[in-house]
Amino acid sequence: MSEPSTEPISYDALVQDERVHASLYTDPRIFADEMDRLFFRGWVFIGHESEIPLPGDFVTRPIGTQPVIMARAMDGQVSVMVNRCAHRGTMVCSEARGNTRTFACPYHGWTYDLTGELLGVPYPTAYDGRLDKKTKSLGCAARVGSYRGFVFACLGPTSVTLEQHLGVATGLIDRACDLSPEGEVQLTAGWVKHRCSSNWKMLPENDLDGYHLGFVHMALFKSVRTQYNRFTGDEKSVKGVVRDWGNGHTEIDWSPAYDGPFEWFGTAASDVVGRYVAALQARDGAAVMARRVFEGPPHALIFPNLFLGEMNIAVVEPVGVEESVHWHTPMFLKGVPEFDRRLLRQSEAAMGPASFLLPDDLTITGRNQIGLHSRRTEWLELSRGVHREHVDAEGRRVSHLTDETTNRGFYRQYRKLMTGA
Amino acid sequence: MISESEHRAVVDFLYREARLADEGRYAEWEALWTDDGVYWVPASTDPAPDPDRHLSHVYDNRSRIATRVKLLQSGYRPSQDPPSPMRRLVSNIEVRKAEGSELIAESNFLLAELAVQAKHEMHVWAGARHIGCAGWTARCECAERRSC
Predict the structure, then answer these.
(1) For residues A279 and A265, what is the distance between their CA atoms, to the nearest angstrom?
(2) B122 in contact with A at a CB cutoff of 8 Å?
(3) How many structural domains comprise chain B?
(4) Does the CB of B147 have a partner CB in chain A at under 8 Å?
């Protein structure tokens, strides 16, 4: 690693239209800026309402490097608060999930309610009436918002609403939720975490890279037939497109290469699928139903940390400048629990340390991390397909499946937030 | 009660299985599995995890075990290119009788893997295994709880 510099960091210089600088992946000062500007002052995905269906339900997890609690209060509202006692900084709750009325700090017994309000402290007379409980809550996120059950939070102050942050990319979340006959997805199977020795940005960049499939995942394609095999081979024969939806939200759309419905699911033939199609058709009509089951779920990044990975939901957790954790869970469709078993097995095949895809991706990102320490060559290319992308009628940039339109979109938003523009 | 020779055979089986996996002898390793074999590594911390409701690390039926081996043998997996040197230490073996002729073996393991594909990190897992042995060289199910 290069010697720490005291020069001010110019994100305009480091993040250019067609290349980005290696220090974005190796400089601890840049990581600290990201934790502040993207993961503290920016909107990030925190969890899903289906994880905490009942009053008193909670989950704990990080936002960036900060521990937080997402809980459902007795009035049904979702609150997101820092998992840190106002007294001495102790992480208050160490359970991954549970149901409770209160959070009691294990150190000195300070007790909080489900919205983070301080209820009481032991032996209060020693504070002589000067402890203002209202100022000693578990710090609540400045803003919490939910879109179709996906809960996002912004811990620090911001003038940006969730609606503004998501922009038209709500359409990507809609594409997932509308596959459920009840219009809801459920993330109730639990999460598997996969540690990775690379900067966190490598994970979303790889998730939205349509160029690597035929190389990194050749073992799978040579061993079994999958819906992805068609995305390898001759460039001209590879259909499918990438899209930049704005605000860093980006997509790989495989569906132009599909020949029929349910290719994303692997099978269209069963009684359950028949009942599912009938339920969708009753709600949406035949034409919309046919489009939904043809196109399937989104393969998209909601900037910066939520990956709608087709029938999986994945989250990237930055740990340190050269360490991150990939979380994933299958996306169940409410109303068709008969699909759950298949979705579990597909999820186990695709993601996690014992799966058939992600270990190869994360080995490569680990190798990227080693290579990026080179001082002789300092830039990463982002120019692929820049001459052939175009803007569609909805204002989205679109290009060939293998083009870096997605990651250029990621870095446009990154530069905007990091420069405060 | 199980006999001394039954116990010995189960221990030999567990050691042999570990050695074949350690040495990447996957064709021989795969041959240990019966057709109805299930290789399960739960991920849930639930005391009674349900593979049909909770996400697992691995829940392979016999066909997926074959796919897993095929991928490893394809020579195209960056995550095992080059293969990780690794060793499994198997201990705390307890054997008991189940239904019919089947035996149940409980054991602990410690698996150390040197991930030489990128940063040469040492990965260590500890856990407990529950194996139903339908014969001396075959088993019908294996559940592994990886505790770290």
Answers:
(1) 17
(2) no
(3) 1
(4) no
Q: Is the pLDDT of residue B62 over 60?
A: yes
Q: Is B41 on the interface with A (CB under 8 A)?
A: yes
Q: Identify the residue among B77, B120, B144, B146 best suited for mutation to test binding to A, counting A beta carbons within 10 A and taking the highest.
A: B77
Average pLDDT, chain A: 95
User: B104 is in which domain, residue-wise?
Assistant: 4-146
CA nearest to A280, candidates A182, A176, A186: A182
Residue B140: predicted pLDDT: 45
For chain B, first and last CA: distance in Å? 33
CB contact under 8 A, A348 and B118: no
Q: Flag if B79 and A191 touch (Cβ within 8 Å).
A: no
Tokens of B55: 């996400």
Torsion, Cα B91 B94 B95 B97, to 10 degrees, reads: -150
Task: Give how far Cα A237 sits from Cα of A145, A293, B103, Å.
Answer: 42, 23, 54
Tokens representing B78 are: 């960056």
CATH number of the domain enclosing B72: 3.10.450.50
Q: Can you list the domains of chain A with their CATH numbers?
A: 44-157 (2.102.10.10), 168-260+295-419 (3.90.380.10)
Answer whether A369 sits within 8 Å of B118, measured CB to CB.
yes
Structure-token pair, residue A309: 């990975």
Asked casually if ipTM beats, i.e. exceeds, 0.85, the reply is yes
Taking only the tens place, the pLDDT of each residue in A86-125 is: 999 999 999 999 999 999 999 999 999 999 999 999 999 9
Contact B53 A189 (CB under 8 A): yes
pLDDT tens digit sequence for A285-325: 999 999 999 999 999 999 999 999 999 999 999 999 999 99
Under 8 Å CB pairs connecting chains A and B tally to 87
CA-nearest of A58, A276, A102 to A180 is A276
Identify the contact set of chain A against chain B, taking CB-CB distances under 8 A: 96, 188-192, 197, 216, 218-220, 222-224, 329-330, 340-341, 344-345, 347-349, 352-354, 356, 359-360, 362-364, 366-367, 369-370
Of B52, B72, B76, the CB nearest to A340: B52
- Per DSSP (E only), the strands in A204-331 are 241-246, 249-253, 299-302, 306-309, 312-320, 323-330
Inform me whether the C-beta atom of residue B47 falls under 8 Å from chain A C-beta atoms: no
